Amino acid sequence: MLSFILRRLLIAIPTIILITIFVFALQQLLPGDPLLVMAGEERDPEVLEFLREKYRLNDPIPIQYLAWIGNVLQGDLGISLRTNQPVTELIGEKLPVTIQLAIMAIIFAMVIGIPTGVLSAVKKGTPVDYAANVVALSGLSIPNFWLGIMLILLVSVQWDLLPASGYVPISEDPIQSFTTMIMPAFVLGTALAATLMRHTRSAMLGVLTSDYVRTARAKGLLERSVILKHALRNALTPIVTLTALLFGELIAGAVLTEQIFTIPGFGKLVVDAVFNRDYAVVQGIVLVTAIGFIMMNLLADMLYFLLNPRLRHQ
Amino acid sequence: MAHSSDRLRDDTEEHLAEGAVDVIDPVLATAPENRVWKKFRTHGSAVFGGILVAFFVLIALLAPILPVPDPAATDWGAVRQAPSLDHPLGTDEIGRDVLSRMVWGAQASLMAGVISVAIALTLGVPLGILAGYFGGWTDAVISRCTEALLAAPFLILAIALAAFLGPSLTNAMIAIGISATPIFIRLTRGQVLSVKAEDYVEGAQAIGLPTPRILTRYIFPNVFPPVLVQATLTVATAIIAEASLSFLGLGQQPPSPSWGSMLNTAKNFLNQAPWMALWPGVGIFLVVLGFNLLGDGLRDALDPREH
Predict the structure, then answer these.
(1) Which DSSP string corresponds to B213-266?
(2) Do B164 and A286 touch (CB under 8 A)?
């Protein structure tokens, strides 16, 4: 197990190095002098010279990269031009909000997606299966920001049931925090639910024709116990792994969801940064999500390993 | 062509008759290319997807000659009007006709979907072929870069690129295209690896055909079907991505119409003009559903295991 994890970590290192190169290269895409863009309204030659020194803009690009990566390794992702806060601090502040949203969304997705997938596989070829597939495909085709807008229109404007915005931290008022997060989490969870449903269905279909399921049926077990204890438990392995891999989609979806429901999270941070031309923040966010994604991949591999006894005993 | 497929059918019938099977599979009994088309045609949802896509393509192409008002023409006397005979889908916050903006927005959405996928294909397929066919260092370098790009979520990467390139529809297409490229590199590479081991490729190598010819005549045609399926599905993703970027203000710039930016404005007028938020979303949903159904149908039709 330990050597397995070490091997995976070693493989991840070159990928992470390449990511840092890409993220660094982003600023080379800026039209014109990056310094003038970075300095914003500031045009004082002394300040410009100070910044030029600080970011080593007079040095060749590889040296600039090394200086930048040196800071990144020490947890210094630069300073936000707008709030003057360190980027690391900003990300640390906003991340818990998005994590709460993401966890709630994943719960929604699993509660909807897995049972529907099981039902659809068990009732393969029946109207139930078709209906489930139509719903899943629709879930994948609906842009989630539009779903959010429609829900606000219906649930908040028409019925006045749930608030359309107004985030409350979970530490302040857990119940209020939960109520304001229900709609965004549902919106974010829809597309994931559809993906999970489709994968659960195909994993279950594979398992349901296997020998041990036939044996379980032959020895007269109740159909419910055959499906839940024998089939689903085995089909769950790839599903759990997949859920970890959906992290990227979740973060990307959070950008739009947070924008619609005005939730002050990670996604809102990146959009605000883009509009304030706060490039250090944008770079920091891309870097953190990419590394987070690689970590989730690693976690998925480990889960797969743990959940699959055949691999564990090799 | 008809002759050979008739002969094939005869052989199949004879063969099946010997096995005492009296039902002839109409799909199996035809030549491969007809088989794909036949499977596709009988695939109800795929045909429905095709019709949806064709409908929107037609609207986008005919936008200049359709009898709709100028999508940018404002009318301060008709601000946020509910759907009526004059304006079947209502008007927006500065009196522009929503139907007309929907029609022209279809053009922006489809163009963004198709062009960004074209960019991804042009970059991704050749790189994937190179990585898969030559292996070694070429493969190692291309594959590591692909993994690194795949680590950044699609939309985050597109947002970052669009932010650094500057907001415009063209830059949004470039950003989406680049973000989608790694998907095609990985898919093509995997396909090439399996095709490369086939006897006919070894045969072509053995008789000394030049590499470019092997790549274009032997490898590419066999890599093409799954790439086509993925391209169709990616158009769906790209259309949503363009709408998302435009919704955030990073795509099509006002006053040019785009479904995403229409939704962005609409969310400020949910109380007064809910129709403004309805139609652009329906448009995105239907066109994306169309491409998804079409892609799923193509996959089933092109999958040899399904025969």
Answers:
(1) HIIIIIIHHHHHHHHHHHHHHHHHHHHHHHHHHHHHTSSSPTTS--HHHHHHHH
(2) no
- Which chain A positions have a beta carbon within 8 Å of B244's beta carbon? 143, 145, 255-256
Does the pTM surpass 0.90? The reply is no
Give the dihedral sign, CA A92/A94/A99/A100. positive
**Contact list, B139 vs chain A (CB under 8 Å):** none
DSSP states along chain B:
-HHHHHHHHHHHHHHHHHTT-----TTTTS-HHHHHHHHHHT-HHHHHHHHHHHHHHHHHHHTTTSS---TT---TTSTTPPS-SSSTT-B-TTS-BHHHHHHHHHHHHHHHHHHHHHHHHHHHHHHHHHHHHH-HHHHHHHHHHHHHHHHS-HHHHHHHHHHHH-SSHHHHHHHHHHHHHHHHHHHHHHHHHHHHTSHHHHHHHHTT--HHHIIIIIIHHHHHHHHHHHHHHHHHHHHHHHHHHHHHTSSSPTTS--HHHHHHHHGGGTTT-THHHHHHHHHHHHHHHHHHHHHHHHHHHH-GGG-
Please answer yes or no on whether A146 and B280 come within 8 Å at the CB atom.
Answer: yes
Mean pLDDT of chain A: 84
Answer yes or no: are the C-beta atoms of B306 and B39 closer than 8 Å.
Answer: yes
Please tell me the least confidently modeled range out of A92-101, A164-173, B10-19: B10-19
Whether residue B306 is predicted with pLDDT greater than 60 in this model: the reply is no
Residue-wise pLDDT tens digits, A64-116? 888 888 888 888 888 887 778 888 998 998 888 998 999 999 999 999 999 99
3-state secondary structure of A4: helix
CA angle A104, A107, A112 (to 5 degrees): 130
H or E segment to which residue A300 belongs: helix A279-307
Residue A86, beta-bridge partner list: A79
Residue carrying the six token digits 């992702």: A77
The tens digit of pLDDT for each residue in A230-274 reads 888 888 887 877 777 787 788 888 889 998 898 998 888 888 888
* Token pair for A14: 């070159």
Q: Is the pLDDT assigned to residue B5 strictly greater than 70?
A: no
Nearest Cα neighbor of A243 from A199, A205, A207 is A199
The Cα of B123 is separated from the nearest Cα of chain A by a number of Å equal to 17
Q: What is the DSSP letter of A59?
A: S
User: Does B225 contact chain A (CB < 8 Å)?
Assistant: no
Amino acid letter at A231?
A: A
**What are residue B97's DSSP bridge partners?**
B91
Question: Does ipTM exceed 0.90?
Answer: no
